## 1
Amino acid sequence: MSKEPVSPIRTTDAEALETARHLLAEARHAALGVINPETQGPMVTRVAIGLAEDGTPITFVSDLSAHSRALRANPKASLLIGEPGAKGDPLNHPRLTLLATAEEVLRSGAEHDALARLWLRDHPKAKLYIGFGDFCFFRFRLSAIHLNGGFGKAYRLGPVDLGLRA
């Protein structure tokens, strides 16, 4: 008689929610996964990230980048947030995977200006290129969140768990 496999996913608790919220709030960069429109294969790159006023993750990228073209061709994306600590097994440090749909923010208007102010607050070196015409913001509308809080600590969350709209 075979046993049913035990799910590695734990019931989300207050500690998991706090870990996820902390990882998202503190992140200044992430690994961005997209589909390369030329090869239809996966592509991963590192991008700077921040949060819009409502807590939605955003990035500010150049039109010249392959990932900007990829997001315009297929807005489905994934972000990996969290870095291994200086010591110990890198897989025992918490990380957050965000499944999302990217939405480009128009370069003109109040929304872009508000995002630019927030971006400069958290990324002051962007002052050098914030006004360049080939840079734009993408907002990531989250559909699912996977928290790996370290060995044996896997959770599935939704946008509402982080105070975001679905």
## 2
Amino acid sequence: MTKYAFYPGCVMPTEQYAYEVSIREVLPLLNIDLVDVEGFSCCGEPMKSMNQLMTLYLSARNLALAEKQNLDLFVPCPMCHLSLSECQRVMESNTEMRDRVNSMLASEDLQYNGSIDVVHTVNLLHDHIGTEEIKKHVKKSLSGLKIATHYGCHLIRPSEVGRPVDSENPQKMETILKVLGAEPMDYPEKLDCCGAMLSANHPESALTKTGQKLQKVQEQGFDVFVDVCPWCHRMFDSKQVKAGETVAVKLEIPVMYLTQLLGLALGVKKEKLGLELNLSPVDKLKLGDK
């Protein structure tokens, strides 16, 4: 078993439980041992526009806690992953800021050393575990399932920070899904935003973005929409009905986390993957039955 410190962030433990449930159920089947580290806090990204030093400090603190365990950090939330990655970039390039942050961390007997990797769900599965290993564990083929993938903004940009997937033509999820027997297909709106970051100030615009993307997916005949971000999932799954009302279209698109679909292919029963927590019509797929 390969061990990773598990950083769940804020949205998964407080709202998007299905992502965490499916992660904890599936990854041990692929020889990944998730270690819960005491003391993790917010990554700081939501406060970045108000206090950049606070964001940097919070990210560095979480990284230092994982370093203290000598474990690489598994971060399923793309926003958290970006915040922690940006912190690593700043701390490596700015020694003055690194010393300043470390002086703040010293009050908790912590220190950022830059000794660990930060991995997201997509590159953990694709790059670290590998598709050949995943293929060995597949028990239920997803043959015939036409899938639209959604990577989200934080997973592909900004590229200079170093993101887990290609910024213009991400294909890692597609490669994983093909191993499961599914048929992932590109579509023109693949890289469009979910709208989540507009929710606080422009909720109608946010729902319009969500609705427009799902409308195009529905029109192109996809069976299921797959994502890897709790913020995006909130929009496409939890707010699908409202998004449809906003763009005057009845939306009935099953939306699932990649780890939920992976779990079904690995033979995990659907009740163990949090599918009852999905608010989109996932029952239409008739997957994961006895």
## 3
Amino acid sequence: MIRVENLSMRLGNFALTDVNLRVQRGEHSIILGPIGSGKTTLLKCIAGIYRPDSGRIEMDGEDVTELPPERRNIGYVPQDYRLFPHLTVSENISFGLRVRRSGNLEDRTRAMLDLVGLSDLSRQCIKCLSEGQKQLVALARALAIQPKVLLLDEPFTRLDSTAKVRLRRELRRIHEQTGVTIIHVTHDFEGSLNSRNRVAIMNDGRLVQDLSEIKKYLDEKLGYIPIDLRAGG
């Protein structure tokens, strides 16, 4: 579904170096690593927001490395959600559909409201929502355009522990219902490793591919490894 080959990019003093990643169709893949390891930079390259210095990005066998974001059919949820405070919940969710002049805007918006459980808040202003509800609105907006891939950048950062547990449950349910391919980057080691998703490790601008290196890295971070891991390639 998604193949990243030998991707490199320099931003100031930081660089992604020879990143290789494969994500299968319908998979929920987590890229786990500390803050500043390059996770967001990689996600933005996949989304088309950043243009890599070298390497290749494929989706369904098509080279999309040079394509702009709007031609990649990707749903992207940034850390700060980027919701429009002057629009209602429903208007935020339907924004991408209006830009694309979708003919089934109302039906699709209602379906997304039902999917994330916010139908009762469709006319609510964004400022009145909790952080967890805002995250669900951002997810619904990204899914409304029926993307091939959903990219999640640190989706739990602004949430308290109770909201994190609830949103992880909701995200698992949404993934099971939609079957969308998800790439989810996070520095939440324990929360991610307790999940059932495929996990890859990023550190210092590189994806850690060797299982012995992954074990050593996680032993240093956690002192134990609660699940079996497969490398990202």
